[in-house]
UniProtKB/TrEMBL annotation:
InterPro entries, per the entry: AP_endonuc_1 (IPR004808), AP_endonuclease_F1_BS (IPR020847), Endo/exonu/phosph_ase_sf (IPR036691), Endo/exonuclease/phosphatase (IPR005135), ExoIII-like (IPR037493)
Full protein name: Exodeoxyribonuclease-3
Organism: Mucilaginibacter gotjawali
Transmembrane regions: none
Upper taxonomic lineage: Bacteria, Pseudomonadati, Bacteroidota, Sphingobacteriia, Sphingobacteriales
Known cofactor(s): Mg(2+); Mn(2+)
SUPFAM superfamilies registered for this protein in UniProt: DNase I-like
Amino acid sequence: MKIATYNVNSINARLPVVLRWLSETAPDVVCLQELKAPQDNFPEKALADAGYNALWHGQKSWNGVAILARNADITEVRRALPGDPEDEHSRYIEAVVNGITVGCLYLPNGNPAPGPKFDYKLRWFERLTLHAADLLAAGKPAVLTGDYNVMPTELDVYKPEKWVDDALFRPETRAAFKKLVDLGWTDAVRKLYPNDKIYTFWDYFRNAYGRDAGLRIDHFLLTPDLAERLTGAGVNRDVRGWEKSSDHAPVWIELA
């Protein structure tokens, strides 16, 4: 079973890229972030024609998350994190596909930090951590994947000294990620490649992709039973170089 995550940076603007990527790589389950499309402007038919059922939570101009399943049913569980009924951002959707609970997330950026946006990021992180603890306690196979907007270690960022004050790399953010993982989750990419330089995002500016000046901010966290089934993981780095592509590249894992 192949599961992928991809921050598409506007599903309609990048639809040709997404469809080409799906055709070439054929993941079984896909989590998308930053749809930047209202609920009624999601390309459901185009994805269905490509063989994918879809659940999505849209939002005009910003945010937005979706889960796709290739020739399989999707059972929606929730479309918001618990803990703040007034939070209207479309940043989380959860479903069951082939017996696995899939949580697709787009964690807040948090810049500028310190400030209200950073405070919101940390509050959202705490809500995610509480929910992740509940998922572990349920004892069912689960994956939490998406754009975490976190570089967990210096290995995950090009020139870390330039990012020390950024919300994606501040000590509070990295501590929040560690607290989440330490509940009992496994960072899939780091489990297989503990010492490799691996990036999932390259800015559009200053030829970041050409210079490989990237960040690893898109992650897969697995429950212990899924971690035991992990057989492969990687980044479709070449997709970032396609014309009119997102500034993120798709990330994938394979489970036995």
